[in-house]
Amino acid sequence: MIRAIIGTVAVLAGFAVVETSSDASTSDAGGGPRASCKATQAYAVLQPGEPVAVRAEPTPSGAVVGSLAAHRSGEGPVFSVVTLTGSQGGWARIALGSKDYSATDGATRSYGWIPADQLAVDTRLAGKVTLYDRPDLLGHAVASLENADQKFRVLGCRGEFLQVINAEQGNVWIDRWCARREGCRG
Question: Alpha-carbon distance 33 to 26, whole Å?
Answer without folding.
Answer: 5
